[in-house]
Amino acid sequence: MRSVVIGASGQVGTAVAAVAAERGEVRGTAFRHPAPGLTPLDMTDGEAVARFLDEAEPDVVWIPAAATDVDRCERDPEWGYTVNVLGPRRVAEAAELRGLKVVFFSTDYVFDGRHGPYSEDDPPRPLMAYGRQKLDAERWLLDHCTRLLIVRTAWIYSEEARPRNFVYRVLEQLASGQPVPAAIDQLNTPTYASDLVRRALDLLERGTQGVVHLAGRDRMSRYALTRTIAGLAGYDPGPVRPVRLAALQLPAPRPLDGGLVSVRAEPSPHTAQQDLATAVGRLLRRPEAGA
């Protein structure tokens, strides 16, 4: 199976490129975060996307690319809409014209977080601009793509030593001795990027279509997750301070009672605890993580 990964330099995109390469050829693209071996591509440029797909001749197009800075999306919704809605549309249009499969990654932030965790049968009610943008993209793709898998997921982490990785940010703060405020009232299902992609690839190969939820088994608060990271890394969890999410005064409202479960996909064979230990262990072996 030949894969194209639109946005292969992000957390999910990096995992897609690595896992898909185990089962076939992969071509990846990047735009805001260029990386060696990836083709520069603005996914909002429909003609450029079409040329790239004609050159790559894939069987499936993965779209993990997104503007995931939810606070910036709240402050600048036009920017977020361009990346999160128009970009996936352009890619999907080109893929549909060529009869290609499309896998689009979405978010638990399409829900309001009042009565989580949420299954595929629950109606979306986003609280923030980012969630509305991802839901707009989902609905357009469902209306226009005939070979489509939408994967909603939540609280992604990986072994990446990059600021957008939550595990890495926590380790940086702990290493510097800074206090680490973490919301005690925000619940979700942390998800290891590599496991997410392996499960998505299995669904794709089985011919699954439509919306599927894939997330970690364990549901916990941001505070509990942060203390778990500290313990796995050998740090004193004392600097991890429990706070209410509202005290952080973030521009975009977040769902509180969140997380995902699935009535369409089999549960992950791994626990979030095992996955988190893997990610933290790999990060600690990287010099840029302070190991």
UniProtKB/TrEMBL annotation:
Q: MF terms per GO, please?
A: dTDP-4-dehydrorhamnose reductase activity
Entry keywords, A to Z: NADP, Oxidoreductase
Q: Per its UniProt entry, what is the enzyme's top EC class, as one word?
A: oxidoreductase
Enzyme Commission designation: 1.1.1.133
* Pathway(s) where this gene product acts: Carbohydrate biosynthesis; dTDP-L-rhamnose biosynthesis
Sorted alphabetically, which InterPro entries does this protein's record hold? dTDP_dehydrorham_reduct (IPR005913), NAD(P)-bd_dom_sf (IPR036291), RmlD-like-bd (IPR029903)
For this protein, the parts annotated as crossing the membrane are: none
Give the matching Gene3D superfamilies: NAD(P)-binding Rossmann-like Domain
Name its GO BP terms in alphabetical order: dTDP-rhamnose biosynthetic process
Domain (RmlD-like substrate binding) spans 1-284
The free-text function statement in the UniProt record for this protein reads: Catalyzes the reduction of dTDP-6-deoxy-L-lyxo-4-hexulose to yield dTDP-L-rhamnose.
PANTHER family registered for this protein in UniProt: DTDP-4-DEHYDRORHAMNOSE REDUCTASE (PTHR10491), METHIONINE ADENOSYLTRANSFERASE 2 SUBUNIT BETA (PTHR10491:SF4)
Family of the protein in this entry? Belongs to the dTDP-4-dehydrorhamnose reductase family.
What name does the UniProt record give this protein? dTDP-4-dehydrorhamnose reductase
